[in-house]
Each structure stands twice: as structure tokens, then as C-alpha cells.
């Protein structure tokens, strides 16, 4: 018997994963103690993870291909907690996924929206069409309910409906921050996040306006009991002061939407380095302080 031929056949007929996943927990145990990098790598090397923080089910073809994009700077312990909890979470959901950390170099005010746009564009340069769904994800949010499936739907899907720090669950009716799922088409059709919100606040509200004032995309949110997240407690970051212009920027959002976003991204940043670590891919960037 020609073993090569048999093996080839077996790979070629890998079936789609079942659309029913057994054993999802409604309240998963979260571990908020950051492991060391050595511990993380030792634990996860056994799970079949591939360089760059890529993983997919072994015995079937996943129905969900998602790039997880995380804006980042100087939150090493949060990243370790995130990876330790969320790799197993994504694997339990049988996703075909990859984790991208988009890290902003020190020296400029943090810009979450710009980093997410960069992650969207640069990850596609690396993967081509391997992922058609994008999770835009804060590093300090750990999902509690495994039924909160990281797939895309007909409308933009807001996942962080119920973050532990908000007493009544949802921050406010128009809140779109924290974690949200977009197809490639949905993100492109709203021209992505604005690039021009340096510092804390407002960029997610601008995105909400883009989504709801655009008759293409549409906005949806998972129910409160599904969209539960534990936020890792922390103080305000020194490189991310409250943006004093955010309300004024928001008021003129509709005027800038066409140019301030994916369409205006060229020239606002430089990719300094791309690293493929075992548990994630890092895209290290320097951003133009006025974008
Ligand atoms: N982020 C970084 N580094 C920074 C700033 C932000 O990695 O210096 C990323 C990170 O993924 C974070 C996300 O951007 O989860 C959003 O950060 P944020 O500062 O906008 O929001 P967050 O709710 O903090 O995490 C707001 C300040 C809370 C102060 C509370 C004091 N008790
Ligand atoms: C709003 C901010 C949003 C922010 C949200 C929750 O006020 O960017 O609070 O913030 N909008 C403006 O400032 C215009 S949080 O409590 O998570 O720090 O996401």
C-alpha cells in the first residue's frame, strides 16, 4: 500500500467541524495570576499551537477563521493573563485563529483606533485571505462565557456587552468598545476606526456612529449573559491621557469619516518589526503623532 497516498487522501477529506460544540461552559474559571513567559510557552507548546500564535482544530476544518487584533503598549502582565486564558477559550470554540499584538512604540500618545486599523491592514498582508473575520480586542478583557462565540454575523457584533467594572453590565446603550467582531467587508464599509483620536476616549463612539449611520454594516450586540467579561484591574496608563478634544472630534465625525480611517491610513505609521513568537505575532509600529 502506498502510505503517502493514503495520508494525502485523509488530509484532503478533512470534514468541516460540527456546528455543535459540546461542553461549552457558561462560567469558565478565570486565572488572573500572570504566568511567566517560560511557563506559558511550556504549557501551550503541547496544544499544537504554531509559531505566530496560530491554531486550528486537528481533526476537522473550522467553520470560523478569525484574526484577533489587540492594540497594545506596556501591558506585559495583562498580555500574559490574556494569552493564558484566551488561547484555551478560542481552542475550545474550535476556531481557526491567530493572535496579533499591534504595539505602539513609546514616545507618542497612545492611539487605539489607529492601532486597530494598522492591525487590520497589516495582518491581511501577512495572511492574505486566511481570515475573513476580525476580533478587535482589548488586552485586559477576559471572556467568561464560552457560549460567546468569536464568529462574525450579518451585522457588526459587539461582544463586550457586560464588563465586570460596569455595575449594570452594559456601559451605555451606544457603547461599542472592548471587543467587537467585523467581517472584512463590514470593517471596510465603515472605513475602520478614526485615526485621529490620540489618548483615551471617543474613538469607539466615533466607530458606533460610523456603523449606525451607514446603511451597509448594521450593529448588533450579544445578550448580557453571553457577553460577560472580567476586566483586569489597572490604573490609567501614563502614555494614554484623556483626550481633551474627543467630544469636539465626535461632533464633526460625520465630516471626516470618508478620509479619517482606513482610506487615510497610508503614511500615518511605520512598521518597525514583525515578530512571530510562539503565542502571538507582534507588529511593532511607530505612529505619526499627528496622523
Ligand atoms: N492599551 C495598552 N496600553 C496603553 C493604553 C491602552 O495596551 O497604554 C490598550 C489595551 O489593549 C487596553 C486598550 O488599549 O485594553 C484600551 O485601553 P483604555 O485605557 O482605553 O481603556 P481601559 O478601560 O482604561 O482599559 C481606562 C482607564 C481606567 C482608569 C481606572 C483607574 N482606576
Ligand atoms: C465613554 C468614552 C468611551 C469609553 C467609555 C467607557 O465616555 O470612549 O466611556 O470607558 N467616550 C468618550 O469619552 C466620548 S471606560 O469606563 O471603559 O474607561 O470607551
UniProtKB/TrEMBL annotation:
Record's keyword terms, sorted: Glycoprotein, Glycosyltransferase, Membrane, Signal-anchor, Transferase, Transmembrane, Transmembrane helix
GO cellular component terms, semicolon-separated: Golgi apparatus; membrane
Domain of life of the source: Eukaryota
Enzyme superclass (EC): transferase
Gene Ontology MF annotations: galactosyltransferase activity
Name of the featured protein: Beta-1,4-galactosyltransferase
Family: Belongs to the glycosyltransferase 7 family.
Native source species: Lingula anatina (Brachiopod)
